[in-house]
Amino acid sequence: RRKSWLVPTQYVLGLFMIYMSTQVDRLLGDGEGRGPDVVALTVTFFLFEFLAATQDIAVDGWALTMLSRENVGYASTCNSVGQTAGYFLGNVLFLALESPSFCNKYLRFQPQPQGIVTLSDFLFFWGAVFLITTTLVALLKKENKELTPTKEETKGITDTYRLLFSIIKMPAVLTFCLLILTAKVGFSAADAVTGLKLVEEGVPKEHLALLAVPMVPLQIILPLIISKYTAGPQPLNTFYKAMPFRLLFGLEFALLVWWTPTVRHEGGFPVYYYIVVLLSYALHQVTLYSMYVAIMAFNAKVSDPLIGGTYMTLLNTVSNLGGNWPSTVALWLVDPLTVKECAGAQHHTCATTAAAELCSQAGGSCVTTLDGYYVESIVCVLLGFAWWFLLGPKFKRLQEEGQSSWKCRRTN
């Protein structure tokens, strides 16, 4: 049944990407008077996310049924390694090959106005890859029909959502959701704003993307190492131990952003600066993956096979939401927390966009006296350590709950 969901979804995704390769340039605008079609792009991303989420549920369910209960924690290793490879191919590699400056500097003898690949070429290529690999899975991966697994309790979409609602109301699941939704507040400024601040301080985004290249082997090896500690009965211990170190990197990143303008020169940044950035990100990745693999292993461990991938995807969705909403809030709060003064024009302020325009019209300029990023960094770290001290032990105790606390209950 997992394959019957996965194969059609993969085919639709592949065909959708091939179709989008013919439309993406029009949707993004030509930059010559015609802007991007925001509504169409929103619909496109919604369809992408919907199809990817359906695929994700099928893959999660397959992991739960293919792996034994003793080894189900290794599903997080497969997940994280796959996501790392996908992020590298779809983000780092694409940004490098699409960048004219990178291609002209490192890959070409004669400069050209565009990169080696375009977004439309990239979408067409991976759409074709989706179709080919899906065909191979459909033909070569056989379901084991001799074994009769426990009958699943889901019968349709309505039945599934009713069951999900009953799962959310279970005390153990509700406690987990509330805790994981607040656990990542302390990392929001470091994760969401640091990269943008480095670009704002003059670090080329292509160079930041290239720094992710040496990270790929580390990101593939880390889950394999961490899974030795998270595949057991208490994966959340790793999450709890790694959390304070990841919080401290929030302060280290703030210092890195503060240090960046002092080492910049006309030719860019010295080599030792990029080495420091690379080491900072590498050590940060150790703490990040320790927490990520631990949560994924815990979700796989407690998920009830009767609802399979839907249960685990529910927990993973809540975990992802726990990281996304603080990042959104952190991005939104940077400007309100930033203090600016109007230099060169008396009786003017820069408190609002309109005030900043009046300051500029009066011959002044807005000067930042306190960057909201640094305020956020300190506040987030303090909130993170407060969560670690007060709620962290309670979060760890969830793994001591019996399996019956996580079992689905039906009343029909």
UniProtKB/TrEMBL annotation:
Which residue spans traverse the membrane?
Answer: 122-140, 161-187, 207-226, 238-259, 271-294, 373-391
Annotated catalysed reactions? acetyl-CoA(in) = acetyl-CoA(out)
Q: Does the keyword Hydrolase apply?
A: no
Q: How does it sit in the membrane?
A: Multi-pass membrane protein
Which Pfam family is an annotated match for this chain, by its short name?
Acatn
GO BP annotations of the record are: acetyl-CoA transmembrane transport
The record's InterPro entries line, in alphabetical order, gives: AcetylCoA_trans_1-like, AmpG_permease/AT-1, MFS_trans_sf
Tell whether Transcription is among the UniProt keywords: no
Where does this polypeptide localize? Endoplasmic reticulum membrane
Q: Name one GO molecular function term.
A: acetyl-CoA transmembrane transporter activity
Entry's Gene Ontology cellular component terms: endoplasmic reticulum membrane
Task: Kindly state which keywords UniProt assigns to this record, in alphabetical order.
Answer: Endoplasmic reticulum, Glycoprotein, Membrane, Phosphoprotein, Transmembrane, Transmembrane helix, Transport
Q: Partners and quaternary state?
A: Homodimerizes.
Give the family per the record: Belongs to the SLC33A transporter family.
Q: What is this protein called?
A: Acetyl-coenzyme A transporter 1
